[in-house]
Amino acid sequence: MQSPIFSAHGVTKVYRSGEVEVFALRGVDLDLYEGEIAVLLGPSGSGKSTLLNIMGGLDRATAGEVRFRGQDLTAFSERQFTRFRRDHVGFVFQFYNLIPSLTAWENVALVTEISSNPMKPDEALEMVGLRDRMAHFPAQLSGGEQQRVAIARAIAKRPEVMLCDEPTGALDSKTGILVLEALSRINEEMKTTMAIITHNAGIRQIAHRVFTFKDGRIADAAVNDQRARPAEVSW
Fold first, then answer.
1. What b/e string do you get for 70-86 counting C-beta neighbours within 10 Å, with b at 16 or more?
2. Residue 169 is assigned to a structural domain of this protein
3. What tens digit of pLDDT does each residue of 202-234 get?
């Protein structure tokens, strides 16, 4: 049986405010396998983003274990987390976090300068369909184009895993489909493992597996045997 690239077991996250405890995660178990797209569904506050942040080394679990290729992330120092994020994980968020004073090409090039085996910025931007927009500044790009620059920036370091938090959340359906097409192409051509958080149940159609979160737990996990192309997604 294929070993998971990511493995979370009993992951719990508690936020404390005085004597009050708020459970964001309650003993979550989840494995991600190489080359798959996993979609994480659920309402706001159900724990999806908290789990993604813990898996990506942006936050620490209160209890439980998270492993990446057998390495126990819960034991990492801050320096090890920085190296882990730099070398292995690409992040895509709902808001693009591009530097306004830099062109699309320059925004992607920032990542390639600190990566050990980067793609050329031109190559990354071409993968997301922005070959002709490389010299444009963020203010000259549409929301969907800015999100695709953010995706190009994430893939330029050739990450093994991409963690995407509401990548289409600020986009209309037509533009969102272009973003999903970019993510699907990266998954197919680079075999990049992806976890995609969304409120949009239609996006589950492109996933290999779907996890539904509720109240800090995984309420349901399902294999998708009839995956759809992004253009076929019911928005």
1. eeebeebeeeebeebbe
2. yes
3. 999 999 999 999 999 999 999 999 899 988 888
